[in-house]
C-alpha cells in the first residue's frame, strides 16, 4: 500500500500570547502580545486586532516558537520568535534575539520585522521551544539554536555547542518534514520512517539517554504526519493516531497527572480516520476525515474548546461543525480554519491573541470567529482561479489571482463572483497552469496574462501582465500553458514554444530561455501538445508520441538522467489520439478507445495499483473512453466515456471527485448524468453537462464555483454559467464560388455558430436549419480565397481545404514555350481554380489540374495537338496567353534498344509499379487516366538505375497510360490496374 509523507504548509500558528495567520492573498497577519516584536509589524505594541506584517504577498508557511508560559495581566510571557517561508523557498525570522533566529546579531536586539535567514530553497521549517529545524528542497536537514540536550542532532550536546545559524545535520538527502519540540526534534524521511533526537524523555525510545544524532524510532515505514511540543503525536497512513513523550496532562489518553514517559509510539484509541494533528505544550487538537474537530489534555484556559475548563483525558468533540480544515495549538490558545475560509480562536486571550478585543484579558472556552472576513486560507502553488467561456465567446474569471494576475482583469486580487474580462473580445480556447494563462481569440490570435518570470507569456519581456497581452503571429490552433513555459500549434501544423528552457523542455535544441515563440523543428504535422513543468509531450498526426526535456515522464521506461533537447519518439505505437498531463502523471487515449497512464501514483491517480509507472499501463479493459483530464496538482484524474458518463479517481481530500470522502484508486462513475466536457483544477472540478449547464465540486475556498459562499462541495452544484454545447464543422460545398454565391456547411450543433468567415472576411449573416446540421451562407463582399473559418462555442473550426473565391482568370506565364505531345505544360496566374475549360488553339484540353491556391494550372499536350494560344475560362471570364505554344514533334521511336518493362502484370490497386530498362538520362513519367486526366507524375534525374519503382500507388482500377519523356523522345506504355 502506498502512502505520502506530508509536509504541507500550515496557514496559522499560535504562540506565546500571539497568533499568526496567512491570508489567501499571501499576506501575513498577527495579533496578540508583541513585547519582543514577535508579530513582526515593526513595533512592540500589542495588537488586539489582526495587523498586516509588512507588504509581502508571498508568504507560504509560518511557525512560532519560544517560551509557552501562561499570561497573567501583571507580566509578559517569556519570549517568542517566528520562522516563516515564502513561496520562492526563502526563509525569514523575527522576534526574540535569544539566538534562535538563524543569523548573528550585533548588537543583540529583538528583531521587529521579518529578516532574511537564507534564500534556500526551503520546503518546511519548524520553530521549537528554543531551537529550530528546517528541510531544504534537496532533502537535507538543518538545525540551529539551543543544544542543551542534543536537540540539534549534530553529534554534540550542551549549551556551549549551540548554533546561531542553520547547520546541516549529517549528509542524508531524503528528509521530508521536521517538527521542533521542547528540547527534542522529530522528523520523517521520504520512505515514511520516523526519526528523533534530543531529550531522552521525548524521543520515543524506552530508557533512552539524550540522543545527539537522528535515530530511527521503531521499524514502521508508513508515518505521514508529526507534531512536537512537550509530547509528540503522529499519524500513520492508515489514519491511526500515535503518541509518546512526557504525559503531563493526559494528552496521551491516560488518566494520570504526573510527568510520565509513554515510551515508544503507542496507538491512541482505535480510530482510523484522523487526518490532522497539532501539539500544544499541554493540550492537543486533531481533525478527522469527516471534518470534525477534537481536543484533549490540559484545559485551564479553555484551550481544548469543549466549553469547560476541565481537563479532558480523552478526545472530546469541539462544537458540531464538520468543516474544520487547519489546526494550531499554542501554550494556552488554539486556532483553526474552517473550509469556508474563516479563522477561529479560543482559550487564553489576555493579550488579544484571539483577535477579539471585546474578549481581551478574558477567556474563550468555545470557538469564536475572529472577524467576518472569510478570505483566510493556505497559499498554494496551484491555480486557485477559475475561468469560463460563454457561448458568445465572452471570457469570465473568478476566484483568487494567486498574486500573479490570474484573473486577467488588472489589479483585482480576489473575486468571489464571476466577472467578464477583456470585453468585447471573444475567446474560443483557454489553457491555464501554475501562474499564467493562455487564451485563443476567435480571430486565431493568441493572448496571455499572469506571471512572466521566465518569459512564459511570450511577449518578449519578463514583465508580469495583469490583463491579456497579444503574442506574435496569428492562425494559432492549439495552446498549452506549462509550469514556467508555453507551447502552441499553428494552423499549418507547426509547433512553437517559449519560456523556461533549463531542461530543454522547449525542444529547440538548446537550454536557452525564450521570451517569444520559437519553432520546434520543421515539422508541419503536430496534432496536440501538453506541457509538464520540466518536459513536454506531443502527438503527431500519424499517431506517434514524442517527448523532450527532463526524462522520467516520457513514458519510455528509460532511467536516463540526460535532458533531451529535441523531440524524441516514444515507443512504436502509432495509435495515440489524446494526451492530458499534470506535472507528475500522464493520461492518454488510443484509437481503440483504451485508456493508458504513467507517472506518479501516490493517490491512485493512474487508476491502477502500484507506485510510479515509467511506461504506459492500460487502465481497465474498456474501449469507449472519449476524453481524459489530469488535474493540475497531479493527484486526481477525470475521464469521459463516449456515452457521456463522467468517471473520477485519485485523491478526494477536498471532494474534488464529486463523491463522499472515499478516494477510489480506479475509475469510478459519477452519477448518471450526461456530460459534454470537464476541467480539473488543483482541488476542484468544473464540468459541463450535455444541456450546456456548468457544474462545480470540490474546494471552493477561493470562490472557484462562482457561487456566493466558500465551501468544500463533495457533490456537484450547478453554477450560474451556461457554456458550451456540442459542436462540429464537417464539410462544405461547393469548393469555389463567386461573391454572393451560396455555400452549404454541414456538421453538428451549428445553431451555436457565432460567425463564418471566408479568407478572414466575415459573412454578414447565415441561416441554420432546425436540427443544427446544415448552415447556408453567402460568400461576402471582399472575400478572398482561403480557409472557411467557423467560430463555435469551443473554438474555431477550419475547412479541410481552401474555398476559392472566383474571379476572372489571369495568366501570367506558361512553360515550356515549346513542347512535344505528351509534355506537361504549367500555367501560372490567379483565379485559376474555378476554370471550366482550357483550349490549346482550338482544341479542348481535358484532365487539367489546378493547385489549391488557384495560382497554377497544369495539363498534358494532347497527342494530335498542333499548338496555338492557350485560353483558360471560368464562369466570370476568359484569359489567353500572350504567345502561342509551339509544338515540336519528337523523333519517332518504335522502341528503345531494350524494351521498357512493367511489373507486375496486371497491377493491383494499391500495388507499386516497377519500370525496367529505363533509357539513360533524365526521365519524366506522366500517369494519365483512361479519360485523359493526369493523375500523377514522377521525375528521375540524369543518374538513375535501370529499374525504378514508380512513386504512384493506383487507387482505382482501370486502364492508364504512362508517358515517359526524355530529352530525345516520348515513349508511351499502357498499364492495366485491377
Per DSSP, the total helix count is 0
Task: Determine the fraction of residues in helical runs and give it as a percent range.
Answer: under 10%
- What is the spatial order of strands in the main beta sheet? 1-2-3-4
Task: Return the CATH architecture of the domain at 12-369.
Answer: 7 Propeller
Largest sheet: 4 strands, antiparallel
What would the CATH topology of the domain at 12-369 be? Methylamine Dehydrogenase, Chain H
CATH homologous superfamily (4th level) name of the domain at 12-369 = Regulator of chromosome condensation 1/beta-lactamase-inhibitor protein II
How would you describe this structure to a colleague?
By secondary structure, the chain is mainly beta. Among the domains are: 12-369, 7 Propeller (Methylamine Dehydrogenase, Chain H), CATH 2.130.10; 728-803, Immunoglobulin-like; 810-887, Immunoglobulins (Immunoglobulin-like), CATH 2.60.40.10; 901-977, Macroglobulin (MG2) domain (Immunoglobulin-like). Helices cover 0% and strands 44% of the residues. Strands 1-2-3-4 form a four-stranded antiparallel β-sheet, with no helix packed on it. A four-stranded antiparallel β-sheet has the order 5-6-7-8, with no helix packed on it. A hairpin with a 3-residue loop joins strand 21 (274-279) and strand 22. The two termini are 62 Å apart. Residues 1-9, 68-77, 254-259, 350-383, 701-726 and 890-896 have low confidence and may be disordered.
